[in-house]
Amino acid sequence: MALLEGKVALITGASSGLGREFALSLSKNGANVIVAARRKQMLESLCDEINDLAKRNKVDGAQSGKAVAIELDVSGSESAIDDAVEKAWAVFGPIEVLVNNAGTRGPVRSPLDQQEDEWNTIFNTNLRGTWLMSKAVAKRLVAAKRGGSIINISSIAGLERSLIPGGMAYGISKAGVIHLSKVLALELGKYNIRANAIAAGLFRSEITNSLFEKDWLNKVAAKIVPAGKWGNVDPDLTSVVLLLSSDDSQYITGNTFIVDGGQSVPSMPIWSSL
């Protein structure tokens, strides 16, 4: 894995869960990171951790990136998102890596029970927010005549063979993220901007913590995951983010990387094993 020294990465939804792990991993590999989310206090705590590590590594001769926090709600107005990206851009310089991680799941609903306000909340965060963040960063990269990498965190719930009962709005929004990634790759390739999606399986995060507290979950993994276990965000997901952030992925764009231990592979519906 190539080091990311000199790279600047912006990670949304970085106050906890997957985003926090992505920020830590990118910084440990040399990138300066801008962590963005709504909860500023949690972001500042993460920045303290990253910056303390950078100081210690500098003494030891190792290279670790620094971090700054930007308060940002990706479901907000386009102007607010654009302003936040402008502030982030001014901190370390051009943002060459964007990790669109911010997301929300919403309650389990059937198509007949889904509420419009719930649908709008999910789509404004998962799909609209990903598009507007990509737009804000990409237009600045184009103006600066610089290439970059957009990494969109989707889910296997967005894959046709992994439809989850009660997850209509979430699954459709994540399918949209996958398609958006392909469109971005197609349209932005001429500017040396690549875009890829990561379709993640079930990983521990803030929105899944309650599920991981249930004793039966590990027993289920042996039945529905060919790998026989649930994955760890680091290194199972962070390794893919590091690859797509580095110059080693210059010829990789428009792809969806499925990271789920094989959960989406079985030909029979996974829920028949429960």
TrEMBL record:
Residue span(s) of domain Ketoreductase: 7-206
Matching InterPro entries: KR_dom, NAD(P)-bd_dom_sf, Sc_DH/Rdtase_CS, SDR_fam
Source species, domain of life: Eukaryota
SUPFAM superfamilies documented for this protein: NAD(P)-binding Rossmann-fold domains
Pfam families cross-referenced by the UniProt entry: adh_short_C2
PANTHER family to which the protein is assigned, alphabetical: BETA-KETOACYL-ACP REDUCTASE-LIKE PROTEIN-RELATED
Name this protein carries in UniProt: Ketoreductase domain-containing protein
